[in-house]
Amino acid sequence: MVETVDNICRFSWGYNDTIHVQCGLKALRSKSTKHAYSIHLSFCKFHSVTPDRLLELNDSVGELYIIHLKKAAKNSAGKPTKGEISVNSIKFYLNGIKSFFEFHEIPLPWKKIGKFYPNDVTNSYRSYTKEEIKKLLSVADPRDRCVILLMASSGIRVGAIESLKVLSVKRLGNDIGVVTVYPESKGSVYTALVTPEFLASLDEYLKYRKSQGEMVTAESWLIRDKFATFK
User: Fold this and answer.
1) In this structure, are 162 and 95 located in the same domain?
2) Where are the beta strands (DSSP E) in 113-231?
3) Splitting the chain (231 residues) into consecutive groups of 10 residues, what average pLDDT does each group show?
4) The model's pTM
5) Are residues 97 and 143 in the same domain?
6) 16 and 109 co-located in one domain
7) Residue-range definition of the domain harbouring residue 49
């Protein structure tokens, strides 16, 4: 089901009076940004107001919310469990609120509010080793093998995969290729090189999809839902 702005607003806040929110979200182009910013406006629950009433509060709302988040956040980095946030995420939670107020031309002292942000904490993230990638590939089906090699060779984010189509991949000389990432976004589009190994896995994956009866064209999605019916 495609989420409308109304659905997002009702899901996030439980209020029907969302006229200011509808206007603010419609000004955003990215669906994922709309969804993220609407969730960030759960800020309204903290102040026990509707999004429209939020515009009438005083300029201390941001500072109070940051203090609340700092008390609730964990002082470590890493993927949080449900209901958790990291101190590193607090500034991003304020992005939706800042966008909301700025769209409605209500100035808040963001420089002052920014002084309440906590210091970031370091994380222990690292890249997969070659041995780990080999292990993943050894048990992967054609689809997962394609995804693993795409990400390992191009370095793209998981979230970028859903926007890729077959035409997003172009083959160059010397058996290497290039993938155009976020092709629909003028501000975020970029290209990345992909390896011969990925191109070979893509050929295998597309061949498998065709064998299942799918009519694969240049406009087909590059990576399909694993459990979707082939059409």
Assistant:
1) no
2) 169-171, 177-181, 190-194
3) 36 42 54 59 62 63 70 69 72 75 77 78 80 95 95 90 93 89 85 95 94 92 78 57
4) 0.60
5) no
6) yes
7) 5-114
